[in-house]
Amino acid sequence: MAQKLAKEYDVVVCGAGPAGLNAAYTLCSVSDGQCRVAILDKKEPWREPVSCAEAVSKKALEQFWPSNEAWIRQHLDGVYFTSPDGTKVDFTEDDCGYILNRALFHREMAEKVEKKGAFCHFSAECKSLFRDSEGFWNVDVCIDGVISSVRAPVIVDATGPGAKLTHGVPLLETLEAGDNDLEPAIFAIVENVEHNPKHIELLFGNKYFPGGYGWVFPRDSKTVNIGLVNGRKYLKTHSPRVMLQQFLAKYYPSAVVKSIHGGAIACGQSLKPIAVAGFFKSGDAASCVNPISRSGIVEALDSGHIVGECAWKWLNTNSTTEKKSIEAETYARWMKAQGNTHLRLSKAKVAFSSIQDCHFDKAAHKLARIPQKNRTLFRIFFTVLCTSPSLLWKMRSFVYVR
């Protein structure tokens, strides 16, 4: 990747995860290479470990990026839904998803972004910014301990959850901060665990996963990813690391833990704007994560694509009114694509998080009696809700998700 940073670009993308990389790729594509794009990050986007469970829907992913066997760890053909008493409900669908090697996936994206004409610097940390009298954003960038400045009329903030870049910038105080309903997630890469390499497993129950869920995801024939995400309100009473260690000790006593990783997930869709004055937010920085599944890879790609297209339109008008309209359009497009669904899921999340273990068990027992070929994801979810009429009423907003 190139190393010499110029003083000025048309767009500076801060953060080289899927959202930032796809925003940069889209900008270079729609502009036919005419847009001067720099994408900056403090580390190579392919550096391990990537704090993610790495499972995606095949259909959803391929809407935004063509699949490549080079970065697919496993092809998936189903899911085990496991209730608190250990009852497994098997949902099967041939070639329904992938387990990704995120490091190699990011590397391919970065290489294609650079081939499209973007300048890539992956030892450059975006520290702070301000807007000058000419309407340019000036970003202070730290490279090898030395602070330099780069400016551009458009900034894409894809720095992840939390207002890392926008904190204390008055003009940006109204923007989504990427900290909506931050939840703790933690996972371990382990060996010596018997598993089906073609299935992921999702586990439910309030003892280890209050307000969230656990997972067992295959990585290869030797290692698996075992982790959990818990509701934010349980952080003080249920330490994620302690919960994971206790869960492993009880259910996988022979597991050999190779490493443990964790982080925060912005799990709630807000009504705040994601673009103002040429400053665009994307991916986790814009709280684009699915509130219930906590998935964010495809959501980041989608968000980055929308932001890339809108940022290019913004650059191609001198009208202040049109620029403001494009900024509003960015939010509207995201809400139409996924945000409105996320809003409904956010409303249903409180009720879903309150499902008692006995209801999960009751639903699992009922579903286990249904022939496997007749099990659909909707039927599985709806059966869980129907175990408690009061719960179904509380989650009525979910029924209208489109």
Shape: globular
- Strand fraction: 25-35%
Nearest-integer average pLDDT: 90
Give the helix level as a range of percent: 25-40%
- CATH class division of the largest domain: Alpha Beta
Number of domains: 3
Count of alpha/pi helices:
10
Strand order of the largest sheet: 3-5-4-12-13-14-11-15
Q: Give the terminus-to-terminus CA distance.
A: 42 Å
Indicate the low-confidence ranges by residue numbers: 397-402
Which structural class is indicated by helix and strand composition? alpha/beta
The main pleated sheet reads as: 8 strands, mixed
The CATH homologous superfamily of the largest domain corresponds to FAD/NAD(P)-binding domain
Q: Total strand count, please?
A: 17
Named CATH architecture of the largest domain: 3-Layer(bba) Sandwich
What is the CA-atom radius of gyration, in angstroms?
22 Å
- Taken in chain order, the helices and strands follow as EHEEHEEHEEEEEEEEEHEEEHHHHHH
CATH topology of the largest domain: FAD/NAD(P)-binding domain
